[in-house]
Amino acid sequence: MSPEHAHAEAVLAKLCKLRALPDDYVYPAPLDLLEETFRSLLIRLRETLNAALLMESANASDGVPHPPLHFDYVDAKEQNAIAFQHDNCAFILVTLPMMGLMQQTAQRLGSSAAIAHLLSLAPFNAQISATLADALFSTQLSFLASHEYTHHVHEHVKPASGAELAIQKEISGTGTGRLEQQAQEAAADSYAVYMVLANLFAGDGREIAVKALSSKGNSSTMDEDLLALFTFAVGGFFCAFPPVAISSSTVYGRSHPPEDVRMNYVMHSLSSWCNQSRPALETWMNLSRYQAHIRAVVEAVRGAIGLPGWDAQLIFLLSAPGKEYLKQLEELRLHQFGILKRNSEARRASQ
After folding, report:
1. Residue 158: helix, strand or coil by DSSP?
2. Which of 13, 69, 107, 148 has the smallest CB count inside 10 Å?
3. Residue 265 to residues 8, 85, 191, Cα–Cα distance (Å)
4. What backbone torsions phi and psi does residue 141 show, to the nearest 5 degrees?
């Protein structure tokens, strides 16, 4: 274990002892109580993510100064992930209930006949379903960790000025958000796409994904399959939480944009990444293919009754109030990005 991570673990233990974290978080998380296979997977993923964070370059963070990063698990009552800085540590914490939710979601996706058909996985059996679920879970966790990492490097998270920790939560209570926060979340989703796809296509994430897809015996479509797997995983993560009806009176008070809006930002970044790294894939994930993929995800995670709720979101977003909401959200996101860019340019000019 590196000195940075040893220090971070000591800080977490102290914060939990002082009850300084939300909802009486427990650290270390009791991983020994989990099923052995799942426990081993979590430990391996934690080691992989922390090794990657330790090797993080200034290019990835665009030169934004921040303390050493540490990823870890905590036990809690809530399904959540948080980012905060304290005592020269930048933390990304995921609660065990959130890990359990992602595992359940990945299993639902992995056992979906519709998703197996879209991936051309045949014959589709329990073993293939299990390896597919592992790849989906790994991709979901990679996306969540990258999302929280972005909050650090886009300066959404600041060191606490006093005893109160400045915490960025993945899930906040209904009606507790603001549009500025939604713009930050959209930016975190967008930036996370680049890191997860790079890892999935050319990093540690590729091995587990290729294993899940190897039953096809056809490697010529592997890039397309990896892109589809990413879409299934992230769409499934967004759909894992109970759907909430949106309207002009409620959409501005959310902590995060609606699921359909988040996926729209994700797919725009996916297209941009393909243009830069896999040009042949940019036109492959077209609108009709995306719609087929996301409908399979919604039905796998929420059941057939989830489709009307997803369609209702789209109907609102296409209405005049919905378009106004999207306009304001994008204006704020671009404004925040402009500030980030100017800060980056100022840092480079001062070097």
Report:
1. coil
2. 13
3. 33, 27, 10
4. -65, -40
Give the DSSP H/E element, type plus range, for residue 213: helix 205-213
Residues 250/312, Cβ–Cβ less than 8 Å: no
138, 275, 325, 295 alpha-carbon torsion, rounded to 10°: -50
10 Å Cβ neighbour count for 62?
A: 15
Cα–Cα distance measured from residue 140 to residue 130, given in angstroms and rounded to the nearest whole number = 15
Distance CA 183, CA 256 (A): 8
Distance of alpha carbon 246 from alpha carbon 10, whole angstroms: 42
Contacts 24+ apart (CB under 8 A), 282-285: 284/224, 284/227, 285/227, 285/228, 285/231
281: tokens are 């894939």
Q: Which pair of tokens denotes residue 3?
A: 């000195």
Is 16's pLDDT higher than 90?
Answer: no
- CA-CA distance, 342 to 168, in Å (whole number)? 23
* Tens digits of residue pLDDT in 131-169: 999 999 999 999 999 999 999 988 888 766 555 566 766
**Which burial class, exposed, middle or buried, applies to 290 when counting CB atoms under 10 A from its CB (0-12, 13-18, 19+)?**
middle
What is the reported pTM? 0.92
Select from 70, 72, 71 the least CA-distant residue to 89. Answer: 70
SS3 257: coil
pLDDT at residue 174 greater than cutoff 50: no
Asked if 273 and 230 count as a contact pair (C-beta separation under 8 A), the reply is: no
Distance CA 330, CA 343 (A): 20
pLDDT of residue 58 exceeding 70, the answer is no
Instruction: Tell me: cis bond preceding 28? Omega within 30 of 0 counts.
Output: yes
Using an 8 Å Cβ cutoff, are 167 and 158 in contact? no
